[in-house]
Write the structure tokens for this entry.
Amino acid sequence: MEPAAALTDMYDQALLGILQHVGNVEEFLRVLFGFLYRKTDFYRLLLRPGDRLGFPPGAAQAMALQAFRAFECMARQDDQRRRQELEARLRKKEEEEQAAADAERLKLSPAAQEIEVETTEEQSPALDASGAGDAPEEPPGAAALAQPQPAELPT
């Protein structure tokens, strides 16, 4: 019997009832192998070519061991998959925490550059009565450069 065929949940209620009744896995296995002993030819040996019931010597043990090993292998693969998923979740959580810490650090860090703005009481002639200017402010001294210079008179 292949492990996939044994993964059916068709017998789960009956087997779970037995397990709950006996209380532990060791007793459950005793019940299972006891059933095989009493009600099947699992432990009968084929000693002569004409025997119709039983298994060749070692065959029953090999079947039990083969079933055990198949499910043991599946359990190891499940463990490995769960461990990889856990490691991936931990890595993701650490990355999220690091990103949050970096964002917090950026929020709390001082400005990279401070700009100081000086104001003067002098207003530009372009300002209207409300104080808002229609023309862009010119730097001091620019007005002097823009004023016409008296032309030089020829001598």
Observations:
- The helical segments are 3-6, 12-22, 25-39, 59-108, 142-146.
- Residues 148 and 154 are 18 Å apart (CA to CA).
